[in-house]
Amino acid sequence: VVALQMARSANDVEAVLGEAPSPDREVMRVKQYVDFGLIAGYFGLALVIGAALRRNGRRRMAWLLVIVAILAAFHDVRENLITLRVVNLGLSQVTTAMLDQLRLISIGKWVFLATASVVLAVVTARQRAWYLRTAAALGFAGAGLTVAGLFYNSILVWGGLLMILGMLLSAATLKVITHE
After folding, report:
1. 139 with 163: CB under 8 angstroms?
2. 146 or 2, greater pLDDT
3. Each residue of 86-103: pLDDT tens digit?
4. What is the DSSP string of 20-60?
């Protein structure tokens, strides 16, 4: 998925998907539809965490998290729609402009996700419990790897994994975050 998001030419698309029709294109299509569910999941989780932070008097952090989550989800949905369009086209129909748009939207998504991870990590880093500091470390490390992954795409997935783990650990301990 990341290889397609960062593709620069029809040759890059061919390396990932092959010529249409292909089983790889069908797998990519399914992955994009599954991703819509994941987007709803992380967006909903960010809203819940934002609401909890807001109730606990951390209004600025709550609003910042929610706004960045909205921007990330918006870019992620656009990225999926563009990817589905590329998947449905033959290699001769894929243009550099289309791939540039996909890459730019993807970079925006990753930047907003990294920003959300940092915002949440700032909140959890201030807590006393070791597991909340661990969540913060995961968030910060994930955001750092994600930014580095924008230049070295092979590590982008690892940044995303660490950010997800940090967010899930933060969500699992939400009551502690909001009451400590």
Report:
1. yes
2. 146
3. 998 888 898 999 999 999
4. SS-HHHHHHHHHHHHHHHHHHHHHHHHHHHHHHHHHTT-HH
